[in-house]
Specification:
64% helix
């Protein structure tokens, strides 16, 4: 499995160009699904309108400052998943994200560059495909069974399903079936077609899953950093007790002169009080 290209094995029993065409259709499905999601939810319209309001009300920012914020967004929010305060959640997310990237790149390389056994596949590609798949499975199943809020904090069953679970479940189903298919030789049998169906659900279900967040989150993180830097702070109250307006916001007299950081509070322990 770590040295054999399973797509080349399957390609011997499939019409020429089937797998290449399938990957192209899946890529187009992601693009079409994301555009549909943007139009249907109005997210792009809201994002640009919010950014215009922020620019109009905030101070003008120099080009170098914008570049610096863009770099911070890319490094902290995208590459390091800095939006997650929970370290376990962040590690699981990073495993899934980088594993999925490895898995996709290796899949594309094997399908397009080495489609049949006539062209020898370098061992690095099946190895990267397997490593990426393993990372997705470790991060995904760890999240599903142990980290999800409704499981870890609210005591719900890990088998409880909701619409928001479509992305992670279809991802886990696709990668799990892919690994099982490759481990059994990579032929064109039941596991192969189940793998294909799960992959169609994963990439074709973009409008109904969180897949499109892959594209929304970096833009939202960038806009959030811009709004903080130009002073508008997304029209939210500033987080400073030194501002008299913020001191007067509290109805409790005790909190009006209290420091912003008053310790861990309920964060001292994990929420397991169900």
């Amino acid at each position: 499995m770590l040295s054999v290209n399973p797509f080349a094995v399957a390609g011997a029993s499939l019409p020429a160009g089937f797998l290449q065409g399938f990957l192209v259709v899946m890529a187009l499905a992601v693009v079409a699904g994301t555009l549909f999601d943007i139009v249907h939810k109005g997210s792009a319209r809201y994002f640009f309108a919010n950014m215009r309001r922020s620019n109009d009300r905030g101070r003008q920012m120099a080009g170098g400052e914008l570049v610096s914020i863009a770099v911070q967004t890319a490094v902290v929010d995208v590459l390091a998943s800095g939006e997650f305060c929970n370290q376990k959640r962040r590690v699981a997310h990073l495993l899934g994200m980088y594993g999925f990237v490895l898995y996709l790149v290796a899949t594309a390389a094997m399908v397009f560059a080495y489609p049949t056994a006539a062209t020898t596949t370098p061992a690095i590609w099946p190895a990267l495909w397997s490593i990426g798949a393993a990372m997705v499975l470790v991060g995904g199943y760890w999240f599903w069974f142990f980290i999800r809020v409704d499981v870890a904090a609210e005591g719900h069953s890990p088998f409880r399903l909701a619409k928001a679970d479509l992305f992670v479940l279809s991802l886990l189903a696709s990668v799990t079936l892919g690994v099982l298919w490759a481990a059994t030789g990579g032929g064109v049998g039941l596991l192969f077609w189940l793998y294909i169906i799960a992959t169609i659900v994963l990439f074709g279900g973009v409008p109904w899953s969180k897949f499109s967040h892959v594209f929304f989150k970096p833009a939202a993180a960038f806009e959030k950093r811009i709004s903080r830097a130009n002073g508008t702070a997304e029209n939210l109250p500033t987080q400073s007790r030194e501002d008299p307006e913020q001191q007067r916001r509290h109805s409790m007299e005790l909190l009006r002169d209290a420091p912003m950081d008053m310790g861990l509070g309920i964060k001292r322990e994990a929420p397991h009080h169900y």
